[in-house]
Amino acid sequence: xxxxxxxxxxxxxxxxxxxxxxxxxxxxxxxxxxxxxxxxxxxxxxxxxxxxxxxxxxxxxxxxxxxxxxxxxxxxxxxxxxxxxxxxxxxxxxxxxxxxxxxxxxxxxxxxxxxxxxxxxxxxxxxxxxxxxxxxxxxx
Length: 140
Description:
mainly alpha
């Protein structure tokens, strides 16, 4: 795993989830991280440079992005277990992560993530507001 470290898991899960991580092979962890990164990127790619966001290391990473990525990874790791131990809490946290992605996608939440820029370093793809004024009635 490249973006998420073992210490990141300790911040968002209990001993049951940690046992899931220790039981999982490195290949499954890497695959689950790839799933989580692509899932989050599919929501946020149109507004943010997700390749740059997921290439950051250490304290440069966005804390919410780390937390929600970790939750989605754990959700996929638990789903692979035969008895799906601790699946309820993982499903709840997974749904919260997806809800956050939808809020960011809709512009209701604005995380500190790198925006998409052109070759000159200028931001592209900003938000556009549409709509109009309240309809006037001229009945006196």
